[in-house]
Design goal:
By secondary structure, the protein is α+β, with helices and mostly antiparallel strands. The protein has helices spanning 8-14, 31-47, 62-67, 94-104, 108-121, 125-138, 143-155, 159-166, 171-174, 179-195, 200-209, 214-226, 230-243, 251-262, 267-281; strands spanning 21-26, 52-57, 75-80, 83-89. The chain folds into 3 domains: 8-104, Glutaredoxin; 108-176, Serine Threonine Protein Phosphatase 5, Tetratricopeptide repeat (Alpha Horseshoe); 194-281, Tetratricopeptide repeat domain (Serine Threonine Protein Phosphatase 5, Tetratricopeptide repeat, Alpha Horseshoe), CATH 1.25.40. It has a 4-stranded mixed sheet, with helices on both faces. A hairpin with a 2-residue loop joins strand 3 and strand 4. The longest helix is centred in the N-terminal third of the chain and has 17 residues, at 31-47. The relative contact order is 0.07.
Amino acid sequence: MDTTLATFEQDVITASTLAPVLVDFWAPWCGPCKTLGPMLEKLEAEAAGKWKLVKVNVDENQELAGHFQVRSIPHVMAFADGQPVDQFVGVLPEGQLREFIERLVPQGADAARLEAQAALAEGRRDDAYNALQAALAYDPGFDEARMDLIEMLLEDHRIDEARDEVDLLSPKTTQGIDARFNAIKTRLDAVDAAADLPPTDALEAQVAANPDDLEARFDLASALIARRKYDGALEHLLAIVQRDRTFREDIGRKTMLSVFDLAAHQPELVSKWRRKLSALLF
């Protein structure tokens, strides 16, 4: 496919978070480009979606060519996870071209995880589950893939299955400082706490009667987190921070940070409460 300055962000930067993207800077008058281009197109067709080819006509997109310091063509740049990771200038023999591409394309567990992410982005949840299970079959210690699976299970209210997967995470994740794991733990702790708490309306009445009852506020926030009502939970957590930073070793602020990770799919909500927390603290 062809791209321009206007579409480069979507066609290359965003797309490369799902699979590697090779950007071919070329021009119609360039003889070597006419050799390399068909080879790249042939290999892309063989790859069946494992990587993507995007072409930039430098005559029509001089600003893009200048930005990436393209001085000679053909010039191929490889992008992965939104960043340029490798490049070459000129025409490579097909064997070397295959080797260049093979270094970029994820294998085994990484490839299966990328497949899961693509399936989830397209709403194919069953396919995403299957791909994550495949990734973990390749590499049972692949904690990032396991946390992908746990987050999906939590979204689908499969709490017991999520707990079982948490037990399989490695100590480096569960005993270290991992924001994703802390968010998962916050959600599971809230679910556990909510099971033993009074009804939400009773907790709301308790807080209304005594706004300085921080235990009641935290219980209410936990109940709301368990129900994924993050806006209300953050309101009460911020009130705890405002009233007493030392309450339960600054649990209000720490829990807010975990909720920000839990609510990452709601960037406007997270941004709103980050601003409120920053204004309070600084």
